[in-house]
Write a structure and sequence with these properties.
Rossmann fold, alpha/beta, globular, eight-stranded mixed beta sheet, single chain, 9 helices
């Protein structure tokens, strides 16, 4: 299909801004956070609580969104996008509010350490520490961690993928669902869509290589499965997955290869290829209809997987 007119309008607007990799780091981070406005007006939720989670190198900021004041809510942990270099609690605030309301579960957003100040495996170490801490201490937050999912978009989707593998290998915590929204799964950048879609669809090869250099400065790290989970030795016995990918993105081939790996390993996968869309559309629900459809779809999947 052709680009959807709403996706094209976003690309036209973005074309007037300097590429992220040409900006000073602080400016790039501010610009990415400002894109949260594309998510539309933040929805009201029953409560929002900022708190610190113990991490491997110090406390990690997190934010807990509750759609209801009752105790015992199931929990979805959300890891944000941003190429391990940009992104924050602010950048994904509208998304997390919307998902709490649509799923009926508490959504916990994590502010993991960013590169280049903190290269691989800092973000993963933080994500895994958060999964383990919430599973062990969620009752302190009034959460039912027997009903838990890991979720994320872009590199956050990669973190959800890898922490699902780590949880399986560690014998827990038991996760009921992994929500993988255009996840980054293979940092080699060698699949077919990296040839056909890495120039005109928001995420360019130049930006991707800058992000990769920040987080994975040693090329040997690109094939570590803790960075590129498609290379994990086994994909059996993983939680069911909801996977969402835009039609036009350089990572499309990587995503579809992972869908096939999971299915061959006997993992249930609900895969939605969003026609005419580009990377980031799920956080643009204020201006892109498919973004709202994705939030509805994720919320329904979480609700179904985490019901008692």
């Amino acid at each position: 299909m052709a680009l959807h007119p709403q996706a094209q309008a976003f690309l036209d607007q973005a074309a007037g801004a300097p590429p992220m990799h040409t900006l000073p780091l602080a400016a790039a981070r501010a610009a990415f956070d400002a894109m949260a406005a594309l998510g539309g007006p933040p929805e009201a939720v029953a409560s929002v609580q900022d708190r610190l989670i113990p991490g491997p190198a110090g406390p990690l900021p997190s934010r807990v969104y509750r759609p209801s004041t009752r105790d015992g809510l199931p929990v979805a942990l959300w890891f944000h996008a941003g190429g391990f270099t940009v992104g924050s609690l602010a950048s994904h605030d509208p998304l997390c509010r919307a998902l709490a309301n649509r799923s009926g579960c508490a959504v916990v957003a994590l502010d993991y350490r960013l590169a280049p100040e903190h290269p691989f495996p800092a973000a993963l170490d933080d994500a895994w520490a958060a999964v383990q801490w919430i599973a062990g201490h969620g009752a302190e937050l009034g959460l039912d961690t027997a009903r838990m999912a890991v979720c994320g978009d872009s590199v956050g989707g990669g973190l959800a993928t890898i922490t699902s593998l780590l949880a399986r290998d560690a014998g827990g915590p038991a996760l009921r669902l992994q929500v993988l929204v255009y996840p980054d799964l293979d940092w080699r950048f060698t699949s077919p869509s990296w040839t056909t879609m890495s120039r005109d669809y928001f995420v360019t090869r130049e930006v991707a290589e800058w992000l990769r250099h920040n987080y994975l400065p040693d090329p040997a790290q690109w094939t570590d499965w803790r960075a590129s989970p498609t290379l994990a030795p086994s994909h059996v016995n993983l939680p069911p997955a909801l996977m969402i990918c835009p039609e036009f993105t350089p990572i499309r081939s990587d995503v579809e290869a992972y869908v096939e790996r999971l299915r061959q390993a006997g993992v249930a996968v609900d895969y939605w290829l969003a026609a005419g869309m580009v990377m980031g559309f799920v956080t643009m629900a204020g201006v892109i209809d498919a973004g709202r459809q994705a939030l509805d779809r994720i919320g329904a999947a979480l609700s179904a997987a985490l019901e008692a």
